[in-house]
Amino acid sequence: MDYELDPDQEQLHDAVNTLLSRRAGPARARSVAAASGIDQELASALASGGFLDLFADDEAGPLEAELVVEWVAAAAGALPIGARCLVAPAVIGGDLPTTVTVMEEHSSSPVRFGATSEAILVIGDSEARLVTPAPGATEPVPSLYGYPLARVSLAGATVLGTGDPDVARRWWQVALAAEIAGTIGAAFALTLQYHKDRKQFDRPIGSFQALQHRMSQLYVRQQASAWLAREAAFHRAPAEAAAASAAYAAQAAARACVELHQMTGAIGFTREYDLHIWSLRLQALRLEMGGVRRHSLALAGARWA
Amino acid sequence: MEFEWSAEEATYRNEVREFLKAELPSDWGSKRQRPDSDEQMSRCKDFCGKLAARGWLTPHWPREYGGHDAPAWQLMVLGEELWSIGEPRGPQYMNVNWIGPSIMSAGTEEQKEYHLGRIAKGDVIWCQGFSEPDAGSDLASLRTRAERDGDDYVVNGQKIWTSYASAAEFCYLLARTNLDAPKHKGISIFLVPTDTPGLEILEISAVIGEHAFHELVMTDMRVPASTRLGPENEGWGILRTGLANERVGVPRYGRAMFQLDLIAQWAKEQGTFDDPEVAATLASAQAACEAARALVYKVVDERAKKQPPTPNASVARAAMVEAEWAVGEAGMVVMGALGLELDTVADDQFRSGMTAGVAAGAYEVQLNLIASMALDLPRS
């Protein structure tokens, strides 16, 4: 057991975050959102550093891949980082396109990056298939929730590879938990600074106990979400740990979105202020894959059925 | 960063499980009874004696005090296994986790000789004389007075909410020895036999929790100065170090998960497990327990590396309280009105959860500590 980064992981942290400080962040997220919605340049930069393929790397593994997902999410990277770094390598392996997203075959939910990823991992009842949709098979869905969403028709899709759908679901749960942990972490850090800077009634609002307790509760949730995602990735997404990480993180995300906005007040509703870059994404993340209800049923089934 | 149990730790866990299977009565855990009953106290002493004989009552103590310097992770494995079957050490977990260590750090040779040997044998019960009617979360404002009189102290005052007092042989008592100093700087600790004349122990009838509360009334209670632990007026610092151990020394999530498994089992027997609301409620509580476990492990890692205490202990404590509440809620949601019956698992857990947020440093105090120490928010 070791709950601190080892020297190799420290080095990875420094390298990835140096890259992210140059190529990601809220300003970049805004400009990408105004254009294609997916940050192909960031994806290519991460790929050329080898950071998208740590899952099967001899020198690294799923835990290192999970850490990259957290860090990219915290930097508001506009790409399907969890699906690409954790889900697709676990299910398909081999050489993967730079951007891969994930969806369920029998679901009408809009798909994050569904129209803009190079490939989609489609999870069906009996198999998971990596596909490229036919031209014109994707239709953007208007939404303010931080990601480009699309409806995807699978008719005429080209199949690139197949794998185990249960493995895919378990890693999707871990990937969501990791993205949520990173996203809450960044939104929380911004709001924490706001609590120290913003003065009302002649004192920083962070000195009011009514707000302190809520910040402390969110901190507990963010920390636990991160540790559960890391542990589940390290143990290669066992059914119970994977579902527990997603169920816990999805509840944390729901609460963090509402609470961080409430504690920030009206400035938090403006496009100019950065909070929405992360906070609105939390809604999409916590509802993906059926949300906390589905994760909970999976957890109950894994532990007690 | 890696999350694998070492081979030694995994072997140790198996050995503890085998030992518990062999040494505990088969109905242990399913038999609900008052933890401070005479029968339960005698079972607990008997069990602690066996643990001691195996070297597992005080494995983390230094060798000079009869322990074998067991690593922090090994102690956590032991705690998890014991709590997950209902903590057969009873109140003696307090003795070994922090009362003993606090005597090691501040006690005289005579005190160490007398108390540590008995604690290590597992045949002595202690209680904590901390809270007072006007000193709960604000413990340092306590008013029980100990006045020096020759070789003795004369103690007057009142303690309240004391668990296990009727069964205890000794009380770890906090009293004020200097009225003029700032409140944290006038407190001393006394190791008081509970049969000392002038000490009256009254049971308080309570509706919650795992066991009864007591009130301790001290009227001109005379104790020798040799019962004082550490220098006069320096009790607060000794206590704080001790309580840092208390806060995560108790893996209560293990007990909560055990209870949750019983609740899930009940739902399956009743055919309600397939109700999505039931399954979701159970799962949500399980996730809260896992969160508490992971945050406790973070603190154990810091301990194992001998790092100074951090606010992560409060983070873990807050998560453990939330987990206990979630399991208490799950029991009631799953069992419905059947959970109102005395000593059902839902009833037991709901009441235990209520005390979890109050005992050993209230939930809100932990949130205060996180805000000031982990988040560096300005004081209110």
Set down the secondary structure blueprint.
The complex is a heterodimer of chains A (305) and B (380).
Chain A: H1 7-23, H2 26-34, H3 40-48, H4 62-74, H5 81-91, E1 100-104, E2 111-112, E3 119-123, E4 128-132, E5 138-141, E6 149-152, E7 158-163, H6 165-197, E8 199-200, E9 203-204, H7 209-234, H8 239-264, H9 275-287, H10 291-304
Parallel strand pairs in A: 1-3
Antiparallel strand pairs in A: 2-6, 3-4, 4-7, 5-6, 8-9
Helix pairs in contact in A: 1-3, 1-4, 4-5, 4-6, 4-7, 5-6, 6-7, 6-8, 6-9, 7-8, 8-9, 8-10
Chain B: H1 7-23, H2 38-53, H3 72-83, H4 92-106, H5 109-121, E1 126-129, E2 145-149, E3 152-160, E4 170-176, E5 187-193, E6 199-204, E7 213-224, E8 228-229, H6 235-249, H7 252-270, H8 276-304, H9 312-335, H10 345-356, H11 363-374
Give a written overview of the molecule.
The complex is a heterodimer of chains A (305) and B (380). With 305 residues, chain A is α+β, with helices and mostly antiparallel strands. Chain A is built from ten helices and nine strands. In chain A, the strands form three sheets. In chain A, strands 1-3-4-7 form a four-stranded mixed beta sheet, with helices on one face. In chain A, strands 2-6-5 form a three-stranded antiparallel beta sheet, with no helix packed on it. A two-stranded antiparallel ribbon of chain A has the order 8-9. In chain A, strand 8 and strand 9 form a beta hairpin. In chain A, helix 6 runs parallel beside helix 8, helix 7 runs antiparallel to helix 8 and helix 8 packs antiparallel against helix 9. The radius of gyration of chain A is 19 Å and the shape is globular. Chain B has 380 residues and is α+β, with helices and mostly antiparallel strands. Chain B contains eleven helices and eight strands. In chain B, the strands form two sheets. Chain B has a four-stranded mixed beta sheet with strand order 1-4-5-8, covered by helices on one side. Chain B has a four-stranded antiparallel beta sheet with strand order 2-3-7-6, with no helix packed on it. In chain B, helix 1 runs parallel beside helix 3, helix 4 runs antiparallel to helix 6 and helix 8 runs antiparallel to helix 9. Chains A and B meet through helix 6, strand 9, helix 7, helix 8 and helix 10 of A and helix 7, helix 8, helix 9 and helix 11 of B.
